[in-house]
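Fold tokens
===========
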Amino acid sequence: MIDSLQAISEPTRFAILQLVRNSEMSAGEVAGHFKGISRPAVSQHLGVLKKAGLINERRKGTSRIYRLRPEGFESLKALLENFWDPKLDKLKAAAEKEERKKRRKP
């Protein structure tokens, strides 16, 4: 999970995840979205994301094709839900209590 957190904390890698979220893209297509970042640097970012289990890679001829790996986010999702659920429950209870108070007032 630490690898995943470190991987998504870097802005370029986060942007790459957004690019491959809904469709597959070749490494060249991904690199084309980043001006000022070399293709080798983009490939390095893709490698970090792959190592963290957040994207899949497949070969198509001489190209490497990347896509998001949703199951790679399961542990992160569980961590965040564990962290926030109790606080959200308290917030919901407070909001409902406030709403009941408002309904009682004429």
In short: The radius of gyration is 20 Å. The beta strands are 25-26, 55-60, 63-68.
